[in-house]
Amino acid sequence: MMTPAELEAARDRVVPDVVAEGLRVLFCGINPGLMTAATGHHFARPGNRFWPALHASGFTPRRLRPSEQAELVTYGLGITNVVARASARADELSHEEYREGGRILEEKVLRLRPRWLAVAGVTAYRVAFGDKRAKIGPQTRTIGETRIWALPNPSGLNAHWTLPAMAEEFARLRAAAEAEG
What is the pLDDT of residue 91? Predict the structure, then answer.
């Protein structure tokens, strides 16, 4: 377990993306938490439900550990963030950071051309892309040929989404991605 000082030392670090061109789904977190920044592994906090939901939805044949994140590319999956810098909580980010992150994310998506961009956090999606009415699920907006899906935030702080409900939403995305080949 990391000490509070070790976690605090990770503040503002940038965690490298796990990406490749032409992915089926590029998952996009809000921004790295301190545990993620300290370990260099996305969605690393033990209470985060990203990895369990990914497996329960059928995206991966087994539950991957955050340290196995590079394996995602073999399944046509990747991970990035709306805002690159690490913080203890997403509410430490400014609206300007979200909007700038959305602009950078759009450039990244145009370059990498994933079939789907899955933003894990509908509020972050709303702010980053200026879509105040966005709801969980597929969006009408596209980035080039890339479709967008807003997923629930897998943080343990998002308690009104249970793991089974979250996995069901991830599975809806998986079915849509598979239906397109």
Answer: 87
Across the range 144-155, mean pLDDT stands at: 95
* 40 within 8 A of 16, measured Cβ to Cβ: yes
Q: DSSP string covering 72-100, please?
A: GGGGTEEEEESS-B--SSGGGS-HHHHHH
Tokens of residue 93, six digits: 């980010």
pLDDT at 181: 62
Pairing mode of beta strands 77-81, 25-29:
parallel
Going from N- to C-terminal start, the domains of the chain cover 4-179
The 10 Å Cβ neighbour count of residue 13 is: 15
* Residue 129 half-sphere exposure toward CB, CA atoms < 13 A: 25
Percent of residues, the chain, with pLDDT higher than 90: 90
- Report the DSSP beta bridge partners of residue 138: 149
**Distance in angstroms (rounded) separating the CA atoms of residues 150 and 171:** 13
**Crossing angle, helix 122-129 and helix 95-112, to 10 degrees?**
90
Helix (H, G, I), strand (E, B) or coil at 162: coil
Average of pLDDT values for 135-142? Answer: 97
Q: Which fold has domain 4-179?
A: Uracil-DNA Glycosylase, subunit E (3.40.470)
Which sequence positions are flagged as catalytic?
31, 42
